[in-house]
Design brief:
Two copies of one chain form a homodimer. Chain A is an all-alpha fold and 189 residues long. Chain A has two domains: 12-53, Homeodomain-like (Arc Repressor Mutant, subunit A, Orthogonal Bundle); 62-187, Orthogonal Bundle (Tetracycline Repressor, domain 2), CATH 1.10.357. Chain A has helices at 12-27, 34-40, 45-51, 63-72, 81-93, 101-112, 115-138, 143-164, 173-187. Residues 1-5 of chain A have low confidence and may be disordered. The interface between A and B is medium-sized, with 30 and 30 residues. The structure holds a DNA duplex (30 and 30 nucleotides). Chains A, B: This is TetR family transcriptional regulator. Chains A, B: Residues 33-52 bind DNA. Chains A, B: InterPro entries: DNA-bd_HTH_TetR-type_CS, Homeodomain-like_sf, HTH-type_TetR-like_transc_reg, HTH_TetR.
DNA sequence: AGTGTCATGTCAGTTACTGACATCACCTGC
DNA sequence: GCAGGTGATGTCAGTAACTGACATGACACT
């Protein structure tokens, strides 16, 4: 039986994540200590650091699944690199359904308010670009084109995501992403 | 007269920067404490933090001048956004003459070995993209195209820089950048 | 000489993060 | 049932990044 004592309540990671986002929203990231988050989740600071590599990471654990889905959307093969990238972008769009938009907005508002969190987000994007580059070269794309196509794909994704969570935006993620891609092709035509 | 006592030797920032890069190269970033850097520069830890906002920043102070030059290369006006971006890229190429390549390689080897430093570098690039976006909109480019063109420009720069500091690379920065840009245009044609 | 200014030194404190070891619920074999 | 193993958690001590408050000392100006 699960007691009410804090230890062994189960779902420690989720409790920590929820407590953290809640506190960040009300007190700000810098104004919240890890000890506070842990206490709010009925755990200790040490346990927090067993679940997350550092304080920032509590907002980025979903990143692993994100990268997996993104890569999973890559077609097995295609004639040109950008066709591969567009396939991955289409797959990623599935990760951002309408019902997730409010949560994404909340999370993004916290990140936008803090440099350290922006850095972490950029690192995740960069790591995604690296993984994409590897996947492209594995499909026969030369290294330079692969890196460029991957970076460009990430740029399209980031730009689209920023628009999607922007105040007042109504279009779906997929619609936005298609529009962004079309505009980029027009720019470089 | 400048005594030899450590205080008031002048050039504190530069001494700290040199000491830091030297120690990072031999002991690694994590293996070097701020106290060590300060001692090597004949200063105290507290003084280090008066010159640099944090430990990472000691490797990134040039970033401000970099951003300034990059923006300074922007033509006053042009018909399409990418022409503006290409102008800025040409200006930036002047910041990386051959004699700077060894130093850039050393610095980059330190950054490549450490996640925290990569994060900071990505933040600088992101901040450059934001500044570029602003400059483009100020020249009449619509917001979405400006953001996309700016991000793309930064991608071209980053890709080019990575090639330039790569082992065995002989081409000049400008040559590499032109090649990267041409390849990107081919990709999206 | 007197005075102000500015970079630096000194010191105490907070917080992120880590290693070592103890504890306690649960499960497993018997 | 009960002895022992396992894994998540707690406890504690320590390091290092970073900050605020205040002292100090060289220099410039008068």
């Amino acid at each position: 039986m699960m007691g009410a004592m804090g230890r062994w309540q189960g779902g420690a990671s989720e409790r920590l994540r929820d407590a953290a986002l809640g506190l960040f929203l009300t007190q700000g990231y810098d104004g919240t200590t890890v000890a506070e988050i842990a206490a709010a989740a009925d755990l200790t600071e040490r346990t927090f650091f067993r679940h997350f590599a550092d304080k920032r990471e509590v907002l980025f654990v979903d990143g692993d699944e994100f990268e997996r889905v993104f890569l999973g959307g890559l077609p097995d093969q295609a004639d040109d690199p950008m066709t591969l990238i567009v396939g991955a972008l289409d797959g990623a769009a599935g990760l951002f359904p309408e019902e997730r938009r409010p949560w994404s907005r909340a999370r993004q508002s916290v990140i936008a308010a803090n440099h350290a969190l922006q850095e972490r987000e950029l690192l995740k994007m960069s790591s995604l670009a690296v993984a994409l580059t590897r996947a492209l070269t594995a499909r026969g794309v030369d290294a330079a084109s692969a890196a460029l196509a991957a970076e460009t794909g990430v740029t399209v994704f980031r730009t689209s995501f920023a628009l999607w969570v922007a105040e007042g935006e109504r279009r779906t993620f997929k619609e936005i992403q298609n529009a962004v891609l079309a505009r980029l092709q027009a720019l470089l035509a």
